[in-house]
């Protein structure tokens, strides 16, 4: 029963975050387009450069505190250790504020030298100083966001992200129009983080007050120093892994800069930006799984963890694989609709890039949340290190040989090796299980469903937008038919998911229709087997 409750909470949280992620993606895209048009190419370039160094300082400032609070908020609240959790939140907030203030002061102090040396822009000290204010607000935002996720208040976390992007959407264009130019755009961005951080801090303090007065199963005398030590032991490996991930991301552009043209890099960035559509599905699910795994102890609740891990891999695979394949199939028309015909190479790059999401069938979206949730953050760091160790030497070689497609292949290869290692850790060392047969069936169903869509793409004379709409609907119908036929979805899966998703009122009608259709497909399949 408790496992079912955790699954229901995760489903509700995932849906709230999915709506917020979708809204944030749309609003963020509008903000980027408006700012870019108002500032022009050179002004938008300065605006983008202004946040490069502050973003690095934000990564340095976190020290792993934010993911630590996600984990401890979930685990301590599930054990009813509310007083201890309240004090842990106090300690995390103090550490985050001090670290972000120190990073802010360093960023402002060295804005001139860093702007000249790193960005090759001697006159950017003022803009860098204005943008550096975001360091403090972004760290508080991240801390509050992760804490609320750990407390299963994901709707409130979602509200923070929407507020941030709405403020950016309103203020940045207004400040540009009234004459503040690039500084106004930066101020609007900083204001969005500030407003969202203020809301998150208020919500966090309200929950902290409730926790501190709630009867607890265990009182704690842990002080600031001990709490910080606990968070550091858990969070520092994640912190190191995040830094390695940042290096991995930046290294892609560096490798391309040596072997490809600016136009190819622009097409590559456009393709990666389009990958955020899959992130609308993937990111909320991964975020919700982290606290779900944190509520179950690896030593005493291994069987429940096994089931949660197996179901998580299976159901994320059923969601993410078809999303990736349909985007690959419609990549040509999608790129034309959003970016225009000038980005002719981006469709090929996008079709290749979505291959990174096909690794969901091996648990790429689940393994990290599982390991972090059960406290094995050092293993998460090892997985990231394995991927980086493979990508660093292969990326420039593949880019030299095959340009952008070669780099994408190197990215997929390094991801395949690292997630295989992570899957080995999860299954062999920690006793989890994965239904690889089901993952393969989902992959086959997803690929087979793309065949009629490809016919539309190559032979249709309709506008690209019409191809996207018709192709998307056709793909959905094909996948809902083939997934049960190929064994990717079974009757027991529908019986498991129905009560969980049924708790979300807005999802009840569409999921009921989908499940009813799949059940009829399964009924037809069963009747043919009997005859």
Characterise the protein shown here:
The chain has 531 residues and is mainly alpha-helical. The protein folds into 3 domains: 1-222, no CATH class; 234-460, no CATH class; 461-530, no CATH class. The chain is built from 20 helices and no strands.
β-strand amount: under 5%
> How many independent structural domains?
3
Counting helices, strands and paired strands, the structural category is mainly alpha
Helix content: over 70%
Q: How would the global form be characterised?
A: globular
Largest sheet: none
Q: What's the mean pLDDT score?
A: 78
Number of helices: 20
Distance between the termini: 38 Å
> Runs with pLDDT <50, length 5+?
none
The helix-strand sequence is: HHHHHHHHHHHHHHHHHHHH
Strand segment tally: 0
Radius of gyration: 24 Å
In short:
The protein is mostly helical and 531 residues long.
Describe the structure using short key phrases.
single chain; 531 residues; mainly alpha; 3 domains; globular
SSE arrangement:
Blueprint: H1 2-50, H2 52-62, H3 65-78, H4 82-109, H5 111-117, H6 125-132, H7 134-150, H8 154-213, H9 224-259, H10 262-274, H11 276-294, H12 302-329, H13 331-338, H14 346-353, H15 367-373, H16 377-429, H17 436-459, H18 464-485, H19 491-502, H20 508-530
Helix pairs in contact: 1-8, 1-11, 2-4, 2-7, 3-4, 3-7, 3-9, 3-11, 4-6, 4-7, 4-8, 4-9, 5-6, 7-8, 9-16, 10-14, 11-12, 11-15, 12-14, 12-17, 13-14, 13-18, 14-16, 15-16, 17-18, 18-20, 19-20
């Amino acid at each position: 029963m408790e496992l079912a409750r955790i699954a229901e909470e995760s489903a509700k949280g995932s849906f709230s975050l999915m709506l917020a992620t979708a809204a944030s993606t749309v609003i963020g895209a509008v903000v980027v387009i408006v700012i870019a048009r108002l500032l022009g190419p050179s002004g938008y370039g300065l605006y983008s450069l202004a946040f490069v160094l502050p973003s690095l300082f934000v990564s340095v400032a976190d020290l792993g505190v934010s993911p630590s609070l996600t984990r401890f908020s979930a685990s301590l609240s599930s054990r009813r250790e509310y007083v201890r959790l309240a004090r842990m939140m106090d300690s995390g907030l103090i550490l985050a504020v001090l670290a972000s203030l120190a990073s802010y002061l360093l960023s402002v102090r060295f804005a001139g030298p860093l702007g000249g040396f790193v960005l090759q822009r001697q006159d950017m000290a003022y803009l860098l100083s204005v943008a550096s204010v975001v360091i403090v607000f972004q760290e508080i935002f991240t801390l509050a966001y992760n804490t609320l996720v750990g407390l299963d208040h994901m709707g409130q976390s979602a509200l923070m992200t929407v507020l941030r992007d709405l403020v950016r959407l309103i203020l940045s264009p207004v400040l540009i129009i009234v004459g503040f130019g690039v500084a106004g755009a930066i101020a609007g961005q900083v204001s969005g983080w500030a407003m969202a951080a203020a809301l998150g801090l208020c919500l966090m303090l309200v929950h902290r007050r409730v926790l501190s007065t709630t009867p607890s199963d265990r009182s704690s005398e842990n002080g600031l120093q001990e709490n910080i030590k606990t968070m550091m032991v858990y969070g520092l490996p994640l912190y190191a892994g995040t830094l390695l991930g940042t290096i991995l991301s930046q290294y892609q552009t560096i490798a391309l800069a040596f072997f490809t043209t600016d136009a190819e890099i622009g097409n590559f960035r456009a393709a990666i930006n389009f990958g955020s559509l899959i992130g609308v599905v993937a990111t909320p699910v991964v975020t919700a799984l982290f606290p779900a795994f944190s509520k179950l102890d690896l030593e005493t609740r291994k069987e429940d963890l096994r089931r949660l891990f197996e179901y998580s891999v299976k159901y994320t695979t059923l969601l993410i694989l078809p999303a990736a394949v349909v985007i690959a199939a419609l990549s040509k028309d999608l790129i034309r609709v959003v970016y225009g015909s000038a980005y002719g190479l981006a469709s090929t790059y996008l079709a290749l890039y979505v291959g990174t999401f096909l690794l969901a069938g091996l648990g790429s979206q689940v393994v990290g949340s599982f390991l972090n949730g059960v406290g094995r953050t050092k293993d998460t760091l090892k997985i990231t290190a394995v991927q980086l160790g493979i990508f660093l030497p292969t990326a420039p070689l593949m880019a030299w040989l095959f340009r952008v497609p070669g780099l994408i292949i190197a990215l997929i290869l390094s991801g395949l090796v690292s997630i295989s290692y992570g899957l080995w850790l999860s299954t062999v060392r920690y006793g989890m299980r994965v239904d690889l047969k089901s993952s393969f069936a989902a992959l086959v169903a997803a690929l087979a469903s793309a065949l009629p869509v490809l016919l539309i793409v190559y032979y249709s004379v309709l506008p690209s937008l019409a191809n996207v709409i018709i192709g998307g609907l056709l793909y959905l119908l094909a996948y809902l038919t083939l997934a049960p036929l190929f064994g990717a979805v079974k009757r027991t899966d529908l019986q498991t998911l129905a009560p969980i998703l049924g708790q979300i009122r807005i999802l009840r009608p569409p999921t009921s229709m989908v499940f009813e259709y799949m059940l009829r497909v399964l009924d037809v399949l069963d009747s043919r087997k009997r005859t």
